[in-house]
Amino acid sequence: MDECYQFFEDLCTVGEIRALAQRFQVAEMLSNGATYEEIVARTGISTATISRIKRFLHYGADGYRMTLSRLKKRR
Question: Hey, what domains does the chain have and what are their CATH numbers?
Answer without folding.
Answer: 2-74 (1.10.1270.10)
